[in-house]
Amino acid sequence: MSETTGASYASAGVDIEAGDLAVELMKKWVKKATRPEVVGGLGGFAGLFDASALKRYERPLLASATDGVGTKVDIARRMGVYDTIGHDLVGMVVDDLVVCGAEPLFMTDYICVGKVYPERVAAIVKGIAEGCVLAGCALVGGETAEHPGLLAADDFDVAGAGTGVVEADRVLGADLIRKGDAVIAMASSGLHSNGYSLVRHVLFDRAGWELDRDVPEFGRTLGEELLEPTKIYSLDCLALTRTAEVHAFSHITGGGLANNLARVIPAGLHASVDRSTWAPGAVFDLVGQLGGVERLELEKTLNMGVGMIAVVPQESVDVALATFADRGVESWVAGEITERGDHAEPVALTGDYSS
């Protein structure tokens, strides 16, 4: 009778030793993304955060958010660059938290791969940790899952969840917005992490462009432009709440400016946003021209150069613009809150983009 080798986890495609090495490589980055309230270190079954720090609040409300970065992970995979995609993940999560005025406290991540390459996983976590530092929150844990047979060896995806806190009587949103408020736009760093299915379809499938193509309008390669990390606004927005009266924020992600801003516009009021107050970056024009994409389709898919909106009373405008300028955030008055007509939409984009 011939001998056969018994099945094992390794023969099924899961490399436990590679996973352990990935954890060792990422530890130094996770240590950089901490806060005084974090208890213990990486390696436990759960991350610990000292909630006694919330005693300074009269009525603390916990805010939670979760997100991923969509098909932008395909660009990172094809470029072989893995240490920026984490910035995108953090930005997508913490900037949803800050919309209600919440300070991001901590995040956890989930990385799913077809095969664990320790250095690659560590690079992804490096980017997440660096993003957490930029957001002022801690990275308290995560999970790396190897899914052979479901994902190809080079395939991966990332997701994350975050928790923040806000004083109950300082929650921002539609209830605070009033007629006459100013709509202040904050510039995006590029595409951020939304609309990449459209972008990839236009640039790769229709135009046949390669990631290493030099694009004069960008001053760099196509791949470098597409991998530009999402701008993280959380600390900038929180700084504004300390220097000026703020009624609402809106994070401009999937759905574009109009749809996301509409989420914080109350019944009876209307936000008029003037396109002529800014010029979208070259990447937005390129996608539109190469794909023959109509402006409305672009605007409901991409951020068109605006990553975050602040709605403030008119008397706070100068302080808001000065606060953002001091923090290196490009911002401008893009519109105003008015009364809504009987059949008007919550948000209208008017005029033509500046050239």
From TrEMBL:
Enzyme class label: ligase
Domain PurM-like N-terminal span(s) in chain numbering: 58-166
Ranges for domain PurM-like C-terminal: 178-343
UniProt KW Cytoplasm keyword: yes
Signal peptide limits: none
Reaction equation(s) it catalyzes: 2-formamido-N(1)-(5-O-phospho-beta-D-ribosyl)acetamidine + ATP = 5-amino-1-(5-phospho-beta-D-ribosyl)imidazole + ADP + phosphate + H(+)
Protein localization: Cytoplasm
Presence of the UniProt keyword GTP-binding in the record: no
Enzyme Commission code(s) on record: 6.3.3.1
GO cellular component: a single term: cytosol
GO MF entries: ATP binding; phosphoribosylamine-glycine ligase activity; phosphoribosylformylglycinamidine cyclo-ligase activity
UniProtKB keywords: ATP-binding, Cytoplasm, Ligase, Nucleotide-binding, Purine biosynthesis
Short name of one Pfam family: AIRS
Gene Ontology process terms (BP): 'de novo' IMP biosynthetic process; adenine biosynthetic process
Taxonomy, superkingdom: Bacteria
Name of the protein in question: Phosphoribosylformylglycinamidine cyclo-ligase
Organism encoding this protein: Streptomyces netropsis
